[in-house]
Specification:
By secondary structure, the protein is mainly α. The chain contains one helix and no strands.
């Protein structure tokens, strides 16, 4: 009685102006400057790796 499949309708990069819906960002690595923009646009106060 458990689901056998979950289908999620998502948008890659949602919420970031230069990544949203752009397939190029599926495997691209962001630069430090791009990460700062991403954090600001998503309202993240602290970024750590």
């Amino acid at each position: 009685d458990q689901p056998t499949m979950v289908i999620a309708h998502t948008i890659k990069g949602k919420g970031v102006h230069f990544t949203e819906g752009k397939h190029e960002w599926h495997s691209k690595v962001a630069t430090k400057e791009e990460l700062k923009i991403v954090a600001a646009e998503l309202g993240v106060e602290e970024v750590g790796v």
